[in-house]
Amino acid sequence: MESLANKFWNRKNVFVTGATGLLGSSLVKELLDRKVNVIALVRDQVHNSNFFREAHHTKVTIVKGDLTNYHFLERVMNEHEVDTVFHLGAQTIVQTANRSPLSTFESNIRGTWNVLEACRVNDKVERVIVASSDKAYGDQKELPYTEEAPLQGRHPYDASKTCTDTLSLTYAKTYGLPVGITRCGNLYGPGDLNWNRIIPDTIRNLYYNEAPVIRSDGTFIRDYFFLEDASDAYIKLAEQLHRPEIKGQAFNFSTMNKITVLELVKKITEQFPSTLEPVILDQVKGEIKNQYLSSEKAKNLLKWEPKHGLDEGLRKTIAWYKAFLQQYG
Predict the structure, then answer these.
(1) Which whole-number Å values give the CA distances from 5 to 2, 13, 218, 237, in the listed order?
(2) Is residue 216 part of a domain?
(3) Is residue 87 helix, strand or coil?
(4) Given 137, 145, 157, 234, the catalytic residue
(5) How many CB atoms lie within 10 A of CB 11?
(6) Is 53 part of any domain?
(7) Overall number of domains in the chain
(8) What is the CATH number of the domain that holds 119?
């Protein structure tokens, strides 16, 4: 018997930007399992992405283009009769943003207003989920971040997400666009090939019996959010966006378990196991020292909670990387 959730999604036309990314690949898989007609925006063909490795590209409609091209986005949504949009596409690497702020602003800010405007002029679009970030809050005195905290990103990536968030709230408030905004902790999980991120880089170093490298002084505090839980959160928010108290709202999604970078690296090291000590570079600039979220609002209004603790999520992630590195090196 078909579940209510699957019945909700069955044969919907869903446009996913950032479909080949870490979260995009996972979300596309979940949507395909629900018999969704997925229209996937692909800019670069990243062959080792799970989107291609798991053959999602053979089951979706691929549209090739760029978020900065408004008329392209308007055409795609109109011709494919899109009713749901998951806007995940962005430049997501903090250090890349610091090196190249203009391209980050083009992708993350212009790309977002283009998506929102294309949705506004299309009367078939019924729900829009926009990926913001915990970085949109910027540096705060009071932690954990709650949704009531001001958005005040000051570094390039953080500022781009503050703008993404504010634009989305603007379209919800001014035009009544059915928008839901996600602010997640640091995503990790199988398929993340951005090796400058702490979890994949640490795992790869330990796999080759090399010491992990910490760019900061190791005391920066973060929360880490498993990929499968993130996909579940996005889908659950979209399913409830028709509710007046949900529409036009932002939600934090997190495990609510904060940890220092050094403690995280030690956890990963213990799962190998290894006696290698990390190399601490203490070279980080342009990043906020402490960031972690409260997801009480999502728990209370969406009845959402993560299914994976950090230890379990790391076990699944490490197992995936061992298999991947054994095959691809």
Answers:
(1) 8, 15, 42, 12
(2) no
(3) strand
(4) 157
(5) 8
(6) yes
(7) 1
(8) 3.40.50.720
188 is catalytic: no
Whole-model pTM: value is 0.95
pLDDT in tens, the chain (329 residues): 455 557 899 889 999 999 999 999 999 999 999 999 999 999 877 778 899 999 999 999 999 999 999 999 999 999 999 999 999 999 988 888 999 999 999 999 999 999 999 999 999 999 999 999 999 999 999 999 999 999 999 999 999 999 999 999 999 999 999 999 999 999 999 999 889 899 999 999 999 999 999 999 999 999 999 999 999 999 999 999 999 999 999 999 999 899 999 999 999 999 998 999 999 999 988 788 999 999 999 999 999 999 999 999 999 999 999 999 998 87
Handedness of CA 124, 120, 18, 308 (dihedral sign): negative
Range of the domain at 79: 4-185+227-256+292-308
Contact 217, 286 (CB under 8 A): no
